[in-house]
UniProtKB/TrEMBL annotation:
Membrane topology note: Multi-pass membrane protein
Family: Belongs to the mitochondrial carrier (TC 2.A.29) family.
Any one GO cellular component localisation term in the record: membrane
Localization, UniProt: Membrane
Membrane is among the record's keywords: yes
Keywords in alphabetical order: Membrane, Repeat, Transmembrane, Transport
Presence of the UniProt keyword Transport in the record: yes
Solcar repeats: 29-116, 126-225, 232-324
GO biological process, one term: transmembrane transport
Name of the protein: Uncharacterized protein
Organism lineage: Eukaryota, Viridiplantae, Streptophyta, Embryophyta, Tracheophyta
Pfam family, one: Mito_carr
Main location: membrane
Protein species of origin: Vigna angularis var. angularis
Superkingdom, natural source: Eukaryota
Amino acid sequence: MDSSQGSTIAGFVDNASIQRKQSSFDGVPVYVKELIAGGFAGALSKTAVAPLERVKILWQQTRTPGFHSLGVYQSLNKLVKREGFQGLYKGNGAGVIRIVPYAALHFMTYERYKSWILNNYPMLGSGPCIDLLAGSAAGGTSVLCTYPLDLARTKLAYQVVDTRGGIKDGMRGAQPTHNGIKGVLTSVYKEGGARGLYRGAGPTLTGILPYAGLKFYMYEKLKTYLPEEHQKSIVMRLSCGALAGLFGQTLTYPLDVVKRQMQVGSLQNATHENVRYKNTIDGLRTIVRNQGWRQLFHGVSINYIRIVPSAAISFTTYDMMKSWLGIPPPQQQKSRSVSAA
């Protein structure tokens, strides 16, 4: 599909959706539409890359026997042999349950923060820098609201069970600790209370603030360089989303490694000391000292493979859902509120 065909398809969807939204979504509050658009975009992108996300989590753990020396294809093939096709999506249920409210809140709060900045601080202008500020604030908000679900998803994805002979990776010689989201959250709460549900939240927040901000900034910045005739091109939107995701992820990936190791610390093999980092800086220093600096980027290659379709699908789907639901730009929302007053 070339860019002109993508533009034609996007224009057709946008034009046709205007008529539908007048009958189906007329009168629905803008923030509700933003929640719907963000949640749908997040679920679609998360499911599309779930197998790669599973392998990435296993690669990030130095104590997962038989995985961290394999390539992408070999890891996926081994998971299928051990757990069947459904093994590729192990933990994805928790991931989708987390990503729907996370993405919904992320995109909605991004739009709300952006509108608030534009309305109250007009001297800052309306360029991509506003997207950097609004995206960072939205990332922090969505993480705080949904982090326990991310913890559950990681713990479920980390467990590898050989359904043929009972040989386990990740927790050798023991039955799986958790059987579902509820089991994970209950067990973690009993072990560490409410604080345990947010283990690893420090590096997550440290990473999401610049990542979310840079991601939105780069996406909106790249779109400003597109010729007007390609503004609605699906191919161009996918390309901008992919580049934005790659740029933001490269700068913040080491923090993701620290977060994952903190989250699964209690699941390490009994022959190894549990991972207990005091904070993000301590985690970074300890990993470099004990595992080498390369461990901070272990799995980054599959993250690149994963983030391209994930960010591209997420941004493009959200943009198209905004058009389908009739969500106006923040500048138009401001003018409408002024007119109504």
